[in-house]
Structure formats: C-alpha cells, structure tokens
Design brief:
single chain; 291 residues; mainly alpha
C-alpha cells in the first residue's frame, strides 16, 4: 500500500464512520473497484477504527470520563450491597441496600452494557458472513439502499424527548441489535443506530451521543477478537508507518464529521445522505453486474 492510498482510505474511514453512509461499504467498494491491496488489511482496518475511536473520546471526553467514574462507583456499591446481604442473612437484620442506578450517567452506563451484548453476539456469529459480503459489490450496494431508507425514516419520525432515565432496557437491546446487524458492509453503523434511537423516541442530541459512545465497546471488542489473526499476518515493517498516517487522517476527519453529524441530526438533514446512499448503492449494484 502506498502513502496516498493510506491517506485516501483514512479519509474515507473518518468521513463514513460517523456520517451515515457506511464506512465498511465504501472501503469494500473502493477495494473491489480499484483493487487496493493493503498487505495486512486486518491490522490496517483495526488501526483505522482505533483512529476514529480517538475522535469519539475527544468529542465526548467529559461524558466518557463521567461514565467511567460512575461505573467504578457502581461496582463499589454492588460490593457494599453484597456485604449488607451477608450481614442481613447472618444477623437476621434489615439493613437498607444502596440503590445502584440512581442517576442519568449510571443509567447510561447500563444501557451501553445492555446494547453491547446483542452487538457482540451478532458480531461473533456473523463474522464469516461479513467477510464474505465484503468481497462483492452486490451486498454493500443493497445494504446502502437499506441505509438510505432508514435515513429517510429518521428525518420524518416524530420528535423524541427521551433521555437516559426514560429509555428502557428492552430499547437498549433493540439499539444494540441494530448495531450488530449494521456490521454488514453498506449498512451504516451510525445511520442505523441513530435512526433506531430516533424511532424509539430518544432526544435527537442524545441519540447521536448514544450511537457514538456505543461504538467504543464494539470497536474495542472487534479489535481484541482480531488480534490473533493480525499476529498471523505477514506485515512488512515499512507498512506500519504508512498505516499510522492513514490512522491520523481517520482521527482528524472523524472529529470533524462528528461535529457535522450533530448539526445534521438537529436540523433533520438526513435526506441528503439518503439520496447519496441510494446513488452509491445503485452504482455498486450496477458495478457488480458490469465489472
């Protein structure tokens, strides 16, 4: 892979990871049409995703650190309650337990955990299917059309008001399932999860935050699962620096696109991305039969 190709794919990753047009679909289409060889593509793919992960941490660092702190305090309270349970059993007392989920950040932490479960299950079960789907233009093309439909629905759904306290755990499971299905190339992860959040009545700004923070465990989990395959791949030392350049571009462009996405959702401008997805999807389907 050349430096120019790395930069190109990094920019594509940064744009399409957060704008609702599917990063995996675009990378698959580019690699199928231009026959770009990444010479250790799995490592490069992981690095690109970690680059966009940095962008999420930068934009939402206050929320993320607050969630980490509350998660640690929740673990503490669980052990406190366990101690009280034992004391109540031994001494036949009725000591009052500490309420674990008593604020919005704690509820958000639990919602993220609930949503991550179906994402992880679907990610593991569908890993081979996703890899096969990336080798053709047809599946990404069809999935981009589906993404376009979801985005149109998101623009016309009734305005939601739900914040963490009002979001139920079954809704969290639905959102996580949507993210798991969106691992298919062409289905935008951000577009799919944000659309489902809006359809479930979440506040628009919170829907964006939910979607992007939910990507953190998904990306980290996928990276951990692929480490063994990365180790087995022969990668030329000269490629590591080239991969790093692409990663930096993915992070910078990703940051810009997260900020852009907040404006898009607030102003209900998903339809423009919907038309784009329809156009690229049809182009990919046509390419499948013509190339």
């Amino acid at each position: 892979m050349s430096v120019l190709e790395s930069i190109l794919l990094g920019i594509v990753q940064g744009i399409t990871e957060f704008l609702p047009v599917s990063s995996s679909g675009h990378l698959s289409i580019l690699q199928n049409i231009f026959h770009i060889e990444t010479n250790g593509s799995m490592l490069f793919d992981i690095m690109l995703h970690l680059g966009t992960l940095v962008a999420v941490f930068v934009v939402y660092h206050k929320d993320i650190w607050k969630m980490i702190l509350e998660a640690l305090l929740m673990v503490r309270d669980i052990f406190v309650n366990l101690r009280l349970f034992i004391l109540n059993r031994i001494h036949k007392t009725s000591l009052k337990y500490t309420r674990i989920v008593h604020n919005s950040y704690r509820k958000f932490v639990v919602l993220i955990l609930v949503s991550t479960f179906p994402t992880g299950v679907l990610g593991i079960l569908g890993k081979d299917l996703v890899e096969l789907s990336s080798e053709t233009l047809l599946i990404p093309g069809i999935c981009l059309l589906i993404t376009g439909v979801l985005l149109l629905m998101a623009d016309h759904v009734r305005e939601g008001r739900k914040m963490p306290r009002e979001v139920s755990y079954p809704v969290g499971l639905i959102i996580g399932t949507a993210q798991g299905i969106a691992t298919l190339p062409g289905l935008s992860r951000s577009g799919t999860t944000i659309a489902v959040c809006l359809l479930c009545g979440l506040d628009r700004k919170f829907a964006v935050k939910y979607s992007f923070i939910l990507s953190i465990p998904a990306i980290l989990g996928a990276a951990v699962l692929e480490i063994k395959d990365v180790i087995a791949e022969p990668i030329a030392p000269s490629q590591i620096g080239i991969y790093g350049i692409g990663t930096v571009f993915a992070a910078v462009v990703g940051y810009i696109c997260i900020k852009t996405m907040l404006i898009v959702v607030r102003n209900k401008k998903f339809s423009y991305f919907s038309y784009y997805c329809f156009a690229v999807g049809l182009f990919a389907i046509a390419g499948h039969f013509l190339l």
